[in-house]
Amino acid sequence: MSKSYETVTRELEKLLSGAMEVLSGDMMHLAVRRADRVSGLRYTPFGGNRETTAADYIQDMDALEKVYDCGSMTLRKDGTARAFGKDDVYGQLQIADVSLWRQAVKIVRDRFKMIGLLPDGTAIAYGYGRYGQTSVFHWRGLKDITCDDEWAAGKLASGQVIGTPEWHERPVDWDAGSVTFEDAFARPGDRESWSCTCRDNGPGGEPRPEDLPEDIRWSDLRQLVPGDHFTVGVRRDGTLVSTGRSIYIMSHGERFVPDWRDIRSLQIIRLDRSFLENTLLVGLTHDGQVRVCAPWGGDMAAQFPAHIRCPSPVVQVLGGSMDERPYLALLGLDGRVRLEGDPCPALQEMTRWQGVRELTALSGMTQGWPEWEWEQKSVILGLGFDGRVRALGRQTGHMTELYQHVFRELDHWTDIVQLCGGGDPFPGYGSFAVAGLRKDGTVAFVGGHCDAALWREDIPADAIIPEERLRLEAAQWQDIRRLWYTMGHLVGQRADGTLLLSREKSY
Known about the structure:
Helix content is 8%, strand content 38%. It contains 5 helices and 36 strands. By secondary structure, it is mainly beta.
């Protein structure tokens, strides 16, 4: 059953109650830090139903640096990572560094995977997980673990046994497959099995760090880049590490990231609605150059050069497709935008923008669903050094008139220092809104929706209904220092750290 607007409002209120800060957020999710835990709420329009999923976990809060994917992955100040997700079908959550494996009080393994029990009663995993065999990262309160070729199981303090999908309450042998850390990493083997081959062990038979599998050395990280089926980490030295796999690449350990150096930041960009073939990895180097790699090939990926040099160092990269034509938008330090690929005519306006300091890509909602195929955004905003907003959007589709209405309002905004927005998932119409934070701490808001029956290009102007109630409420906010737009609500943080949630519907 679909959740009502009022139900999700109450869930957001509960999430923000006692929260110290917002860690990440967009139109579909919000993650916050509490004194003793990280909590998150994600909205998912699935099968025509409007659902929300809550994430709530405790960890070493003082060590927390950043959160990703609504809190399912965290980066710690020491450069190591943690994963807390429930779905690890492709191994994308196997980001535990070898230092964490050294803390394990028990390690069990078979030919294709390895499970570790940590002192705090949690579990880590590494290896083949195509059918959920390694989906153990959300387990808590464990006293023991075991595994077989097809599944893993854990015993709780209460004596209850939990397992991965293929377990089905089979009899388990808690002593089978247990190995030491040295055995787990130093046992010879070939690529078809889990065992790694060490060239030469150090003193006492312990493997040296350089002898361990590349995927297990998730340390000294500056960034995590989660994908649907894989995760890439950027180390502080600019090199990359990865885990997970494409559905087309079933062999464990297959490398699908390039051997790049000097990478400052990395993005995963999908160019169209195909599964993975037209996915790009885009890296930004310290000197402002752009590197592009298509891990799985793809016809459209061939349109982008592997190494892009711009007249001015690149500070931001956006990408995707608009009107089914792929593009990369590169924002230079000089405030100009350069386009690569096959951009549609609407995007060409970006090359005439000047004095832009930041690009923001947003999407509306249609019939309760995000108006994009995969991650394709419908509107791009440019925030200028002068505090004014530039905007462009799709030129086709029933949302076009609504976008033009919003753009006309944005032309009058001044002194803007932050932008956010997107569609409201709750009306059964097409909807879109933009919120702007002004330099003086006040908030500007504009948005609207178009009637669901008007599925044609020529939507009359009187079908556009400004979201006056939320606009008026936002006008009352003062002393705001940060702004988010999520699930049809504005969330603002005052200078004193307190968080505000808008009370009015955004439609």
